[in-house]
Amino acid sequence: MDELTLLLGAILVYNFALVQFLGLCPFMGVSGQLEGAIGMSLATAFVLTLSSSVSYAVYHWALVPLQVEFLRTIAFIITIAALVQLTEMTVRRLSPLLHRILGLFLPLITSNCAVLGVALLNTYRPENDTLLKATLYGFGAAVGFSLVLILMAALRERLLAANVPHPFRGAPLGLISAGLMALTFAGFAGMV
Amino acid sequence: MLQKTSAPHVSAPGGISRVMLWVAAALVPGVLGQLWWFGPGVLIQLAWCVLIALAAEALALRLRGQPVEVGLGDCSVLICALLLGLTLPGHAPWYVGLTATLSAVLLGKHVYGGLGHNPFNPAMIGYVVALIGFPIEMTRWTHPDAAVPLAEVWAAFSGALLPDQWTAATALEVFKLERGGMYEAEFKASRDIFGLFGGRGVEWVNALFLAGGLLLLLRGIITWHGPLGLLGALGLCALIGWDGGSSEGHGSALLHWFSGATMLGAWFILTDPVSTSATPWGRFVCGALAGVVTYCIRVWGTYPDAIAFGVLLSNFAAPLIDYYLRPRVYGHGRGAGRADE
Questions:
Q1: Which of A27, A41, A96, B309 is surrounded by the fewest CB atoms within 10 Å?
Q2: Where are the domains of chain B?
């Protein structure tokens, strides 16, 4: 039950893009088209789940015993970047199809604040105290991010046909829409 | 000039303004009910919202270089202002209505290109902005039994604090926060804010909005899909969560249907043809989504009523729902005409 609450909380209540304002660059940048958004969502789910579990292991099994917690930022960045790069190379060799879907998005999302954010939040949140919970938190964050990214992409495709006043075309309207979505998600506040 | 359009043609007199005026007419019984139970504050909010909305619409149309008379003449902004005014508590100060209406007309509608282009229901954008921006002011609902003197209503509108005996928490709020381990029936009997089957006063207002909605349905202005989806999903959730009225129960389907803004939301707000899905079954799915979200927030969230959040979330999901729920093109197989094929 704890795990379910954690997962739902990460998806809806503490949505990464709309409530915590993490990962806004891909949220605005890749939400122009539904196809791209779906590719980015899969890559995000992959990277966030992987990085949250690995960073948990690095933090609790290496940094804490050695009493060098202050190195966590740099340690997380290095391990996550190295790991994703390695995975990308493996995927390219083993499954060209998967690589074509995730391909470009993997390096893009790896350098994103949401990835470091989920690793750091895992160390700050006392309730994420096991490897399973830390991984679920990362997975939930990715699901929540993907959900709003895909909804946003469908919305922006529809807005292409709208008679939007000139100054608001493109990014301004995207940001206003994101703000209105964030207002909607404020309704979930306090649910977990 | 020769204008060619493709068949089939259906001719209907009046256009948008006729539809909007029918919606306004269908709102009348509910407005009268709200006036009867909650006093003249309702009229003040309505008038204030309409005034601001007309001014904002005229300003926006002027700035965008569009003909003002045509934009005001289609009456869509009037409906938006009426719906928004109905959702504001009768004793909210003037700046709540001002902020809400400006957000609705400018942010909710004109930034997206005006009538026919807004992906969200403007009235609900205004309401949510007010709810999050002024959480205290938005709780100043009149007690259904209080006869508040007109001078006090006016003072509340100009910003003075209304004495406590005239305001009351709504039935949904009381039900959610103040149960204190009592059985449902016992608790409802002990508080005068509950009526026969819903909230006191609010149940009749909801019934009148239901009647207005049925009128629109009979006139063919709305379809049944959206309201049935919302009310059905809300009722189904309430049935699943119903435990015979224990102290831990989440309220019966009747309480959820006839309290808060349920009927107004289901029949007048969710059915906005612009912001909801474009296909009949898409509308049903949108309604069901709104119903489930409303129930979840009412039961587990911090807000006592959540129709606005439910409707906005369904608006937000409508383009994706439309993408996957395309009707079959006549003469073609499933999925024909999808963008990626």
A1: A96
A2: 15-168, 172-327+337-341
